[in-house]
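User: Hi! I'm working on a homework problem where we have to compare a predicted structure to a textbook description. Could you give me the structure for the chain below?
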Amino acid sequence: MEKRLNPRKDAILRALVEEYIRTAEPVASQPLAEKYQLGYSSATVRIDLKALEEDGFVYQRHSSGGRIPTDLGYRYFVERLMPESTLGMHEQRLIRHQFYQVQYQLDQWVRLSASILSQALGSAAVVTIPRASEGRLKHFEMLSLNDTIALLVLVLRDGSLSQGRLFLPDPATQEDLSRLSQGLNARFGGQSGSELGDFVDAGGLATLTPNEQVVTLALVQHISRHTTWGSEDVYQEGLTRMLGQPEFTRLGDEQERGERIRKVVEALEQNALLPMLQEQLPDAGGVQVVIGGETDLHDLSIVVGRYGLPGMPGGLLGVVGPTRMQYSKAVALVRYMTDIMNDLLADYFGSGGATPDPSMDGEGPTETYTTKDHDTNHSAKVE
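Assistant: Happy to help. Predicted structure tokens:
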């Protein structure tokens, strides 16, 4: 943000934003000057509030009412005025204790992260399961269901498991399938979806048998899809809690409140928030704050961070709430939760926790593949 206010306007805007976040009520000049002991008369504060309104930092719902921060005012507050905040040692210990109490499982950690974020801030929380930045094949197996149908079960380097049912052009026994798997594992083990796709694009299928072609195309589909999060990979918590905020219960007329509720419910139900989170954190880590009109959700803000260490799977975690958000606390909490997840994942993957449990067979997306002239048609279903 290039525009910079003078120190007096900084102090007035900071006090106004903090007061509005606390009360959800428009802020007038006289109580602002008195409560925050700004050292300026209420007349001076009133003049500066008028100037701040002209510059787009605050606005009035009614000409005789107090003022409310705009998206620009919140943005200036976050980038210039917001006090640095860290969680106290007691709160940190409480959070870590909760993680020590849950099972040593990734999905449990993700669920708990969403719950902690939502409860601490009274907002909705969105957390994705860890994903590798690029899926790579570790190995796969094939199980014969009958002479022309087989179950493909593949494991990726980050321990993710996926499976699909394949229709084979040529009949095959279990022995045939085991031999096929051994050969293609030796050939494609360690490769990414894009590398396998390059092999297909270069005409590599012509060197394979018809059954090997079907398997190779299925591997490309599974591995390439691995780097994106589907709805089953996202944990959301706290929608009801967030809808108890004043923005959804008493601020504005009934039609305005109804529209706010509709937008946030649709965004969460349709998983529309995840693309926004990914867009704000394409590669870099750290914590990002997205405010109001900077997204399609004009009345909401998102505080999001990316967790995961270099060379390891990672994900996104964040909170979603009204633009009248406790930004300082939200940034501190999201930052701390990313540190927690980084520590847990380092221990999990460093200790071999990514090795899949054979009991996971039957979990995850199941897909059906067929082939004709090297084309693959597939329809996904979850079992």
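For your comparison, note the following. The longest helix spans residues 327-350. The first strand starts at residue 58 and ends at 60. Good luck with the assignment!
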